Input
Amino acid sequence: MIQVQNLTKDFSLNKKQRRELGNEYKDSKTLRAVDDISFECEPGKIFGLLGPNGAGKTTTLRMIATMLKPTSGTISVLNYDSVSQGQKVREQIGFMTGQTALYDRLTPAEMVRYIADLHGMEKVTFQKRKNHLFDILDMHDFADRRIARLSSGMKQKTSIARTIIHDPPIMIFDEPTSGLDVMTSRAIMDLIRSCKDDGKTVIFSTHRMGEVNQICDNIAIIYKGKLFFNDTLDHFKAEMTQPTFEDEFIYRVGDA
Amino acid sequence: MNLFTEWGMPKMKFLTIAKKEIIDITRDRRTIMMMIVVPLLLVPVLMGTVFKITMSQAEKASEKQLKVRFIGQQYAPNLYSAFMNMEKTIMLDQIPADSIPTYIQEEYLDAAIYIDSDYQSEIDKDGQAKITIKYKGTDSFGITKDRIRSVLKESEIEIISQRMDRLHLKPEIVKAYNVTFEDVASDQEKLGKFAGGWLPYIFIIFGFMGAMYPALDLGAGEKERGTLETILSSPATRLDIVLGKFLVVMLAAFLTAFIALGGMAVGIQRIPDIPPEILTVINDVLSFRTIGLMMTLVLPVAAFFSALLLGLSIYAKSFKEAQSIVAPLNIVIIFPAIIGTLPGMELNGMTALIPILNVSLASKDIIAGVINPVYMGEVYISLFGFAGLAIFWCVKMFNREKTIFRS
Output
């Protein structure tokens, strides 16, 4: 379970950034990336955070993963506070982005071992879990090859394995399919579904409406740091006044 | 937030990070080149080559045929004969007097000796005969000047002794002192003061170079690859991450400096024709105690460089930006190391506190075997103090959101 309450994040701006952002921020010392948002993600359900680039999705997910500290508001992950119990929170999560984020000079076996060690996994538990994952992802053939020499599909499998090696109850996916081909994207979507089936709490950010429609149970629409919708996908569909998802999205954030 | 509130000591996560970073950087050819190949092969080759070239140039200069034009040989025939009889000398009497400056400038002629027309009359009346020598002062080793001076000196001594005989004077009249200089400095001290400055220069440079690439790779490189998020979202604390990375960068810096020292030891053995007594002194200098003492200086220097470079590297947005930030630092660290090699620079209460310079000066004294323990203590305090500050700053950089996610 993830509970986000009145979450706000401000970033301080330097002169150069103020200039780049234009007149609106000429006299502003901060940029509000996330503005007083609240939502809940439940176990066994996929929560989709939907918004265009720069909406505040990554900032929100980074705050949940304790990489960034909220300016105000609270985040509770399995009842651990993200600020005062950061390490406890990180023990519960698996974090995956569109980048494979792997070390080229390690092998897939070493890569997952590294993450498992950071999570303090017992040797026997690790070995069992690794074998299981390498079986279902069909990774044994390239487990001891340097990551730099792997195909992008093999790298993606390695990235999946390192994200879930410690079997985290909370999964955070930050635009996991961006820049991937159809086949690899499908593998990621399958992973997200399997996480749901395993009863994990899943939060998934994307700017692709189609993906949301495919897998999400609950969605939140975020734009310019503010939430414009936060309910089930079924409700969203029921309330739709526009013919397509894209049109509905633009209609809802249109006045912002 | 207190930097140490999330200290993950019980699980030693920093060691897990350090272990992974060691595997990672030792598989990188560029790091291995910089850490092992360059200091171990390049240093001895460079040392041997420089020494060989210097020796052969010196030999060439002393073997050189000196081309001399003597103007006024009719006024000083004896002096002319003395030059004629000088070894490896050719008298070029046919060069026109007005072309002499051009000939010297273009190095067809090494020197021209001008004798005044009143040479003999001045000698006869116990006066001073005027002799002017034109030469080009840029020739290597000052061989021309030295050889001409030696002929003139011999001739002058002969004239003076004739004058003294005539006046029935003893040589002591013009030479009141019989001075003997007795040098109490041991060969080790002399070598230490002469070459001691260069030894730390080598390991300071190599320590820095050894830390540079791993620091860039482990900081900016990690950001660029997107792997920083992977470890930031793991249970490892920021302090674990910094500490793990820092230890590996420091190890690389230390090893590179140590290997460079080994490279120098190999290089010295490669230098031909070292007199055996000097070689004995060098081998004494390269004793376990001296090297051990110097390595205790390298350790805090390596820590200082590593923390500084890692902090800058994590600040940079990309590997390329990190390189451009770090490159000017090369000059900053070389500067105090060079000052340390200057004659007259000594380790004292003040210089012992200036980082890098103090390493250079302390190493000189360690090699010479005259290190003052009080100053040595000051050097350690200064170096560990600066290293501590650099580590603290580096941890702060890792804790700053603006730095970690700077884009």
